[in-house]
Amino acid sequence: MRSSLSLSLCALAVAASLALAGCGSISGTLESPSDAIAGSSKSIGGSFNAISTSSGSGGKSASAAPNMQSFERDLRVFTAGFAVTPGGSREDFLRGVARIAEDHGVSDWEAEPTTPRAIGEGLRDAGLSAAQMDAFVDGIGRGRPEAQLALEGYRHPGS
Amino acid sequence: MRAFAAALALLAGTAGARAAELGFVYVGPNTGNGSGGHAALVAAGVVYHLQNEGGLLLLARDGWPEFELVYRELENRPLTVAHLDVAPETVERVQRAFARLRVEQEIALARRDDVREDVAWLEAFAAGAPTPGLRGAGLVDPARAGDPDAARLRERAVGPAPLSPPAAELAGDPTSLREALLAREADRALEGSYGLARAAIAQLPAVLDRPLSEPERAGLESLCERLEREVAALARSARPDRGYPMLLAQARYLAARRSLSSGRLVTLDVFAGVDPPPDSLPEGVRAKRRAEAAELLRRGRELVLAAGHTDEADLNLLEEAASAAAHDGRADLAGPLSEIGLRKLPALARSVDAPAPPGDLGAALASARARFEAQDKQLAERWSYALVRRNCITELARATGGAFGSDAEVAAALGAPVPRGDEPFGFVPFVFFERVRERLRVAAVDELPGRRAVELERVLAESPGLAARLRESFAYGSTVYEPKLRDSAFLLFTDDVFWRRPAYGAVNLAFGLGYAGVGLVTAPFDRGARALAGLEGALWSLPELGFVNVRKGTYDWQD
């Protein structure tokens, strides 16, 4: 009964407002211009809170700041998708990494330990065999820290 | 306002904690773009929802606090959160599915941006005009070559030997050309010790320009050491797009050194070069945003500089706070919100000498234009907004369900398959949410009333009685709401009544039409604003005649 009433009410609402409804943007089509400023300020403030409660970047997933967790997740899925899609060039991959990093406030992603770790995780998701991963790590230079981080990501991906 | 904040905090104490897991959110309707309602998914404190941005349905990721602030407090829309009983790995799995969507969209948009820039460059070459500015090249100024701080950076980062010439040739496709030019500019800036460009600096108001503390000085020294290492590494990097991060690192180093020598904070302006949209807000809102930006800057200095958290992402947050403070508190200049700050990197552009690529420019330009059209078409085919077929609900359902390999898997994880957008009325937010509640493994449901409802409850608790209730039911008599033209002209609130709603709606309809009539008289003076508000008021009264409330009024961001 409750459900059918809800449905009919909803249908009426839709009929009344169909032309104007439409997944409006939180930032682009706000009812008040002050909404965007308020939301943006809150967003920066929330990120400062995250700094004060996290152990910073570069650590294991569980202890990293939310921003770095998000970066790691994004880069992981990008790497996995790129690895199984034929036709992508080295430049395409690097530009993709740069775009994702900038989306998280990072321009120098080579200096960010999360980067190789996430790439290692993504390669595992893409189904790279242990032997292929070994070859990848040898290609980077097994003794280099980024190679070890990639291997760590491959062997122990975040949950 | 304080009472509202306190009430909100009490609610947030329960809802916020649960929002750390997985749940669906239904956002009640209001006038304007939210008239059909909205829905979102919240996972580990991040809200995922799809929004119509210029005709494309794009995924937004907002932090729960800012989502709640904008939708519930300012837009005065009630939120209902259905918390799902799920395992932690399910939360991660769903988040990864939304990350895939976000990345797919980001990369597709980036490709289109690149081709758009290719077209602009080729048009400039064909016309013999200066090429568009190179992103980040304007952070340093060739006219200030020989800067002592820049010379120090060069000495520390590179040593006395000259830099090797850029390996990349200044040819090839326009994107590669831009990358090579930026690498060349970064090397030139380092070799020639270019100083910081004046326009790249955030100009803080005098009242916020307080001296550096000792911990802040220590944080800046540590930042300089890190940037010296990074500039050295970037100068030798094989990364084709190393130019921009290298220029940015140089500029940040120069800003930090200037801070240390002047004893005052100098940061890069993330909004430099951004054309600000018109600022039509009342002074009350401006004062609030100035105060907010000042507080953000204070906290940023404390948490980033003084505490030594000067990793690039954290430093970027401080730059954002300082830039907002330098621009009269306007933190909205960066564009869309994000769950992780604005994430706007300093990137002031500058045009540089660039050789035209070899070959037939006309053919290259035609090819670039064709590629741009193809990219645009591809984006539209994949993500264009369509009210019934592809909206915030259909894609939310698709992305959530797509986190799992099969219906059996999703049923095991969530209790049942996610309701699909192509079911009857499945594209309607309210219907979708009802199906979520009925079918999925819902552990609890939180009803979070909009701002007016919270404030009304407080007022009626303080002054119970018919007189107060009657006063507050009138838009023009209420002590917790101020009528605004953008809310449309109406007389009576109908969101907190049901059986009286059609009668109230009839009154509102008559009021709206009357208001529109008065608006015709005042049209020469207000450009028809009142007439339009009256007509909209009449329109939003129609659903009320059928027991449906859409209009609730909105609030500004001020006390």
Structure in words:
The complex is a heterodimer of chains A (159) and B (559). By secondary structure, chain A is mainly α. Chain A has helices spanning 2-17, 33-53, 66-84, 90-102, 114-125, 130-140, 145-155. Helices cover 65% and strands 0% of the residues of chain A. In chain A, α3 packs antiparallel against α4 and α6 packs antiparallel against α7 (145-155). Chain A is globular and about 50 Å long. The relative contact order of chain A is 0.10. By secondary structure, chain B is α+β, with helices and mostly antiparallel strands. Chain B has three domains: 2-105 and 383-449, no CATH class; 129-334, no CATH class; 471-545, no CATH class. Chain B has 17 helices and eight strands. Chain B has helices at residues 2-18, 64-74, 88-127, 148-157, 174-191, 214-235, 243-262, 283-306, 312-326, 361-383, 392-401, 407-414, 429-439, 451-462, 466-473, 501-526, 529-545, and strands at 22-27, 38-43, 46-53, 56-63, 79-84, 140-141, 195-196, 442-448. Chain B is globular. The N and C termini of chain B lie close together (6 Å). In chain B, 52% of the residues are buried. Residues 1-20 and 336-340 of chain B have low confidence and may be disordered. At the A-B interface, α1, α2, α3 and α4 of A face β3, β4, α2, α3 and α6 of B.
